[in-house]
Structures are given as structure tokens and as C-alpha cells.
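In full, the data:

***
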Amino acid sequence: MRRGILRWIARHPRSPGALLLGPGGLWLLAFFLLPILILLVYSVMPRGAYGGVQPGFTLEHYRRFLDPLYLGILRRTIWLSFLCTLACLLLAYPTAFYIARSGPRRNLFLFLAVLPFWTSSLVRTYAMIFLLRDSGLINRALMDAGLIQLPLRLLYTEGAVLAGLVYGALPFMILPIYASIEKLDPALLEAAEGLGARSWSRFTRVVWPLTAPGVAAGSLLVFVPSLGSFVVPDLLGGARQMMIGNLIQNQFGPSRNWPFGSAAAFAVMALVLVAMLGVLRMKGLDDEHGTSKGRGA
């Protein structure tokens, strides 16, 4: 039996690759492509009288999504996701740099960076509620210190949602940047210093360009999940801080409007794909430009 399999593989050298891709391809087909196809079909079908869908074709759900109310929710979602990505970058870059240069303590700091993953995101979000509520730890500490007389309104605000998003997404930014910084050759920095480059010049001309792939990967890992987040806005933001994930979840839940929820989900997914293709296109143009400059030199 074993000899027969080895003989078949020797006669079909390209088949082992197809066999290895088979399980993953079937998984993606069943749990990624088919659900997307179902969303697309549902988004152009009329809503049923008691929920669900009924046979037919309509673009009304996409036209409804262009209503200023829903476009406002989309703008708020994109803005908060952008702020979350920017805040994670500002916090993660120096943290990752310190971890990469911490020597024997590197593994300990990496363990601390991924430690929040050991706890459910729901539990971490409820912990944020205990910190930010009127009788929470932050307000109590400020009042005991005599800095405020009345509790600050921290919970159910846009700032609370942003803090929750950053808290949950920060490790996704630290790890890719850390991987890029760890591969950075210290000899390049020494050479730049020997050529008279100051600290800022060494960072902008050596460190940042070489770690930009990690920054780009971390930004995607933070920005895209933030667009679809609905647990954090629901618990920390309340009804006034609704994001597009909450809208989609409500359409598939209490509202039972599956076609409009599918249209909203498909529109957001298409927006994310266009943005990712644009980033990849710009990166490709930069790579071609850098290659042409290298050849010219």
C-alpha cells in the first residue's frame, strides 16, 4: 500500500501540493466562500413578512444603506477604527522596540504581551466596565485624591469604546512590529551612526523603512477587526455609540431583517477589500519604484 502511494506520487509530482491544499481549500469553501455567497444572495432578496427572506430580486437594501443615518454609523466606525489603529501603533512601536532589545527578559515581556489572550474578550470588556463606571476604580481613585468632587462620565462614551478597542487589539500590533524589529541588523544602525546620521535620521531612514512591513501587517490586523467589532461598542458605548457591527448584529437578531443585514455586511466587506487592494497596489508600486531606483544606481 505504502509503495503504491509513493509510486503514484512519483508519477504525479504536482499532486502532493494539491493534496496538501485540499483540506484547507475545503474548509475555506465551506466556512468562508459559501457564507459570503449566501450573504450576497440574501442581500438582493426581499424581506419575508415574519423575518427571513422570500423569493425575488431587489436592490432596496443597498439603497437603504445609503441613508444618512447608516452612513453616519459607517463614518463613526471607520473613524474609531482609524483612531484605534493609530493609538495601537503609537503604543506598540516603542513597546515592541523595547521588547526586541531587552535581552534575556525578552520572553517574559512577550509572555506579558500575549497574556490578555488567555482571558475571554467578554471578560476583559466587563473588567473595563468596572474600571470606567461611576463607582469604578478610576473615579474612586480621583475622588479619594481630591482631584474631583463628582464622578466623571467615562462609561458609555466614545472614549470608552476607543479604550476598549485599543485594549483588545494592542497585542495584534505589538507582535508583527516586534518580529520586524527583531530581524533588524544592528550593524545597519552602527553604519548609519558612523556616517554621521543622528538619532532621528537613523530612525526615519533605516529603522522605519525596514520595520514598515510589520507596521502594515499590524495595522491591518487591528483596523479590519475593529470595523466589525460589536461587543465592545455594545457594552462600553451603549446605544449612542453604535458601530456598523452592532447594526449588522441587530438586523440578524432583534430586527430579523436578514436582507438588510446581509447588504450592510457585504457593503462593509467590499469596502474593506477595496481598501486592502489599494494598500497592496500602493505597496507594489513602491516596490517597483524601489527596484527601478536600485537598477538605475
In short: The radius of gyration is 25 Å. The mean pLDDT is 85. The chain is about 75% helix and 0% strand. Residues 76-257 form a domain with the MetI-like fold fold (CATH 1.10.3720.10).
